[in-house]
Amino acid sequence: MSQNLTATVALEEALGKLIRDTPSLPLTVHGLIRDNPLFISFSPGLESCFRMKRLFEFSAIFKVAAILWALLFLVLIGGTQAVYPALLLDNRFPLWQGTVWLIGGVILAANLTAYLPSSHRFIYGYVVAPVSSLILFLLLASGLAYPDDTSNIHASYNVIMTMILVCYSMRLRWQVSSGILLGSGLAALVAALAAGWQTPWLQAGHAYLLIGIVLCVIAFFVERRERLGFLQEVLVAIKTEELAQVNDHLSAMASKDGLSGLANRRAFDEFLAREWERGRREEQPLSILFMDVDFFKRYNDTYGHAAGDECLKQVARAMRQALLRPGDIVARYGGEEFVVLLPNTDVQGAMEVGDRLLAAVDALAIPHHTSDAAFHVTISIGLACMVPTERSGANLLLEEADRALYEAKSRGRHRMACLQPMVSPTYNVDDIILMDIVKDHLPGKP
Prior knowledge:
- The protein is an alpha+beta fold.
- The chain has two domains: 2-241, no CATH class; 265-434, Alpha-Beta Plaits.
- 67% of the residues lie in helices and 8% in strands.
- It contains 14 helices and six strands.
């Protein structure tokens, strides 16, 4: 069961990769299903997946088939010994006896390797065809070398059974099966002519050529039906892949802000809830930076909403680039408000991040001549830090960051403010400490 599941997953992954890498594949599959040609030819990638499917089918039936072959071989050997004992015991039939030993050895090897799945790909690709050709040739040669009715009829039955096994149990392409039947027959014919055997050609031709043609035709139509069925599977895989892409797109739309490309408020709230629980379990601090673009309404009124949208895009890009850790997240909280969540970060670490954010936005140098904070676009930051506990909630951390942002605005904007101590869910007003970080080297308004 586990092996079959692994094979199914491998085939699905191969098909998925082929679908993603071949945009024209849906059109090709629809065209083949619509036209329903007699000879169905696949592209190299699709053909590789089809052969992989047949390999997995061969591997799945190999264990059972090997046991059945062994039972069939024992029945044939027992019947031969009971009815035609001379074939196995008389020294006049060395070719027939050698064929029996060869087939017995092949069946024994098949039963041993059936429990080694890692060998199945090699066996399917490089062993089945040549060994089948050799066995079929030896069976034909045995019948042609000993043309009496007893051995010839017995050999014909074995030839027919071997042909059927080759065409339907080996999961080979019909061209390969036909090649095995044709090649073995021609080799046996050449051997018979070279050795001068007295062969009843009409009987041999009827037993081999006619049945071989019928089997090849049937094998062709069986494979054609399987190829059409495989196209339906590919079509289902294409629909599944398209649905997954649509779902991913919808998920991205649901979690990303359309203007800035950052996470939206919904995604931030989910991330905050997860990190709050993690911080509570690990007793690690969690920091938030609440940010606001200074005098953004004036910017919109002066430069227009299109310029305002472009300004927010540039600010969002600068904020994203200022974050150095993969686990940190910046989101657009609404309007011109942004928020950064810093897991496992204390006040000092959060202040360093806030310092980089201030510098990153200042470095954009987006003109803003109606601002009272500077001649370019600036931001104000409110910082809050807390070690999550069961008695407190994530909303308290947001509220404290919002209070700190309000303090930064009231003190002139273009700065960062932090209310301390923030490592406890409760604090006393007398314990509040205000910290301002202002870049003295940055141009500001007099």
